[in-house]
Amino acid sequence: MNDLERVERIKAALGERAVEITNPAPQRIFLTVPVQALVPALEQLKTELGYRHLSTISGVDMGDVFEILYHIGYVGGNLNVRTRIPKAVPRLPSVCSVIPGAILYEREIQDMFGIIVDGIPDGRPLLLSDDWPAGVHPLRKDWTPTRPEEKIPGGKS
Amino acid sequence: MKFQIPIGPQHPALKEPLSLRMTVEGEVIRDADLRLGYNHRGMEKLAEQRTYLQNIYLTERICGICSHSHTTCFVQGAEKLMEVEPPRRGLYLRYVVAELERVHSHLLWLGVAGHEAGFDSFFMYVWRDREIVMDILEMISGNRVHYAINTLGGVRRDIDEALRQKILDFLGILRTRTDYYFKLGVNEPSFVARLAGVGYLSKEDAIALCAVGPTTRASGVAFDVRRDDPHGVYGEVPFEVCTADSCDVLGRTVVRIKEILQSYNIIEYLLRNLPDGPVAVKAPRRAKPGEVVARYEAPRGENIHYIKANGSDKPERLKVRAPTLGNYAATLVMLKNGFIADIPLIFAAIDPCICCAERTVELVDGRSGRPTIVRWSELRRMAARRAGRVSKKRNVEWPL
Amino acid sequence: MLKRLVRWSRIKSPWILHLNSGACNACDIEIIAALTPRFDVERLGVLLKATPRHADVLVCSGPVTRQMKDRLVRIYEQTPDPKFVVAVGACALAGCVYRGSYNVLGGIDQVLPVDVYVPGCPARPDAILDGVVKLLGKL
After folding, report:
1. Does A20 touch chain C (CB under 8 A)?
2. Which of A140, B133, B169, B355 has the fewest CB atoms within 10 Å, i.e. the most exposed one?
3. A138 at interface of C, judged by CB pairs closer than 8 A
4. CA A126 – CA A123 distance, rounded (Å)
């Protein structure tokens, strides 16, 4: 089936949960859902329509909201489910009950943005080093790294 | 009685720092855990401070073995954002280099698998023939690794008629050598028996845990981005998706060997039908605001880049998910109920590109909770001893 | 007399340990390729060893990440004297493209004292051999 048929089927299945659905390029569909409807929508997409391969979860810092995208692959293209959460209260429900393979991507989001994922089975930090200061999240736009002191062997500086 | 053993960041077999933590009972692994972060270099933050052209060189150095796959994925996305269409000849050359990289990566893996199974002479043979592929790449691009042949709008270098003929001749030599290795597989039952039954991953687990690449194709799941989401020239080039049904390391070896043969066919098709014309068009400096998702089938699995542009000459956000990160959850499942001596083999079977995804492995002793460091060389010696015991028990056929 | 014998054997047959501290892998594959039949470093007596306790020369690649820093120092201390450090690749020299990242401290010489620098991205196996031979000339 081609893109237009897919868009129609998703609209029919999700009903009012789908806030906005676009097809900007061939083989790419972008769908926006509110954060409360995220887990039921993904469950419906997986059981009724067969979208079950999650490629990754990306986050973008847009100033005062975080935009989280779930990239789901299917035979014929790529479906991206978008949801927005406010930066002041960054809480996201975990999708590991629907797609068990999402655990590492959610841990990465926790580390990089400081988002708290509710219901995550294993919430340890993934990528940052053991001596990383707590509460500092590298991918937020309002944090710039300070370059460490560099010593030059031989004594010149 | 349970022990937890850490395998620390430095070890001789794998070339990258990784730390696994495993709970073992006797010689059987009950639980596995991993610690990532030794290789985390902050690429995504660095990419926001560099222009699109500089980012090509940055994404190249995410990984040394699959470097062309990261640049091609990035350039595919950036070209869509800038609405630039590369000319046909440039596109064909780009994918010739991509398939050559797939060949070199799979040959590298074959050598490493032989080394982990204790078959060192196989390792030396395969890497000697891999040098032929490195010579071809050096003739095309000037460097053995990090070819930097992509640019926004096409490729940077062209090949002439003499070089094209030379590559076709070298391909012929490579085909005879690869045939020799497959016959070696048939005549070497201890090698086959060592690989069979190790690292079992069922089809349902592979789908639920979102595994990618040859790891999941060996469990019968026909997931290949070249067919599912055709990009570049893959819509017009004839090729097959290679799968196997045995769900273990032997299946993964078979899938990779079949893919090498498919790649030879693709390279020949592309070189014989190479169109004439320019190899690049000029691309603008700025990208219009928008977002794009680019996917690519790297030698290890599905590579996905998400780029968001805000109208300036630097990207707003670049998100990279390399294939090995997708396979990690599946690896932990494969390690459970395996033997310690199988760890190097299972780990090598997913073809880990740790630098692509920052991983570490530590084994933790179950009962006392004290971490002890077991060197990878110890594990490999155990693996070699086990190989000696195994060969008499199993009677496995080489499936090719 | 014994000292001369030991010195001769150290020059004729250095044993190396390969350390990767967060690199992209290209230099490491070139170091392994130096062992394969095309370049064949074993004919010069160089053996790739598994543990720091057996090694004379530490061949390091990659920029130093924050997580790897303590481990590098620990492995350096585990190597018996006299030991030498060879930094391979542009990352190990000064950080290559990763300079300025929040998790990268720079080249290997921020953490360990380096004897030989081998440039390249990645350094060719011939260049690595040249570096090891120049090191032996210094002994």
Report:
1. no
2. B169
3. yes
4. 9
* Facing residue for C24 by CB, picked from B17, B62, B108: B62
Nearest to A145 among C67, C102, C110 (CB): C102
**Residue of chain B minimizing CA distance to A61:** B317
- Cα torsion for C43, C49, C52, C57, to the nearest 10°? 20
Highest average pLDDT, of A84-98, B39-53, B263-277, C68-82, comes from B263-277
The residue with tokens 């083999």 is B345
Mutation target to probe the C interface, by most C beta carbons within 10 A, among A129, A137, A144 is A129
**Contacting partners of chain B (3+ CB pairs under 8 A):** A, C
Q: Which of A61, A78, A129 sits opposite B37 (nearest CB)?
A: A129
Q: Residue B44: its chain A contacts at CB < 8 A? A: 112, 139
Nearest to B41 among C37, C52, C98 (CB): C98
Domain ranges, ordered by start, for chain B: 2-40+327-390, 43-196+273-320
B373 — pLDDT class (breaks 50, 70, 90)? very low
pTM given for the model: 0.86
Chain C residue with the nearest C-alpha to that of A151:
C110
CA distance A111 to chain C (A): 13
Neighbour tally for C109: CB within 10 Å: 20
Closest A-chain CA to C114 = A153
**A touches which chains (3+ CB pairs under 8 A)?**
B, C
SS (H, E, C) chain B: CEEEEEECCCCCCCCCCCEEEEEEECCEEEEEEEECCCCCCCHHHHHCCCCHHHHHHHHHCCCCCCHHHHHHHHHHHHHHHHCCCCCHHHHHHHHHHHHHHHHHHHHHHHHHHHHHCCCHHHHHHHHHHHHHHHHHHHHHHCCCCCCCCEECCEECCCCCHHHHHHHHHHHHHHHHHHHHHHHHHHHCHHHHHHHCCCCCCCHHHHHHCCCCCHHHHCCCCCCCHHHHCCCCCCCCCCCCCCCCCCCCHHHHHHHHHHHHHHHHHHHHHHHHCCCCCCCECCCCCCCCCEEEEEEEEECCEEEEEEEEECCCCCCCEEEEECHHHHHHHHHHHHHCCCEHHHHHHHHHHCCCCHHHHCCCECCECCCCCCECCCCHHHHHHHHHHHHHHHCCCCCCCCCC
Query: What is A3-89's CATH number, 3.30.460.80, 3.40.190.150, 3.40.50.1460, 3.40.50.720?
Result: 3.30.460.80
pLDDT digits over C14-55, tens only?
888 888 887 778 888 888 888 888 888 787 788 887 788 888
Question: Is B34 buried (19+), middle (13-18) or exposed (0-12) by CB count in 10 A?
Answer: buried
- Ordered by start, the domain boundaries in chain A are 3-89
Complex ipTM more than 0.95, yes or no: no
CATH superfamily of B43-196+273-320: Cytochrome-c3 Hydrogenase, chain B (1.10.645.10)
Q: Are the C-beta atoms of residues B98 and B106 closer than 8 Å to each other? A: no
Query: Do A60 and B292 lie within an 8 Å CB cutoff?
Result: no
Output the six-digit token pair for C23: 């690199």
Q: Which domains does chain C have, with CATH numbers?
A: 13-138 (3.40.50.12280)
Decide if B376 contacts B11 (C-beta within 8 A). yes
Residues 6+ apart with CB under 8 A from B394: B193, B196, B197
